[in-house]
Amino acid sequence: MIFKAIGDGRPYPEHGLSTRDWAMIPPRQIRMDTLVTTKRELALDALLAEDSTFYGDLFPHAVQWHGELYLEDGLHRALRAALQQRNVIHVRVLDLDALMPAEPAGQG
């Protein structure tokens, strides 16, 4: 199995990060089998394109929310890495768990 789960949409709140904001987050190594995708479908032409990151970030983007890592951007890059027999990729991770801690039980 390549990913932990295949999701459909983003279960976490909107974070509002721009491309420039994402670029400030240093990439770190993440095992692909710990990622939950936020897309069910992919475009084969994008998967096979040699210049798919020409105008974008070289590193996929993930959001940590309630202990899960959601692959927000970079599904095609992650799948290309899997096709090359790699199970670890460098990902920029926004930790919403740290930025938006859960309220204690009974509060809210």
TrEMBL record:
<dbReference type="Pfam" id="PF23719">
    <property type="entry name" value="VapB"/>
</dbReference>
<dbReference type="InterPro" id="IPR014447">
    <property type="entry name" value="VapB-like_prob"/>
</dbReference>
<protein>
    <submittedName>
        <fullName>Type II toxin-antitoxin system VapB family antitoxin</fullName>
    </submittedName>
</protein>
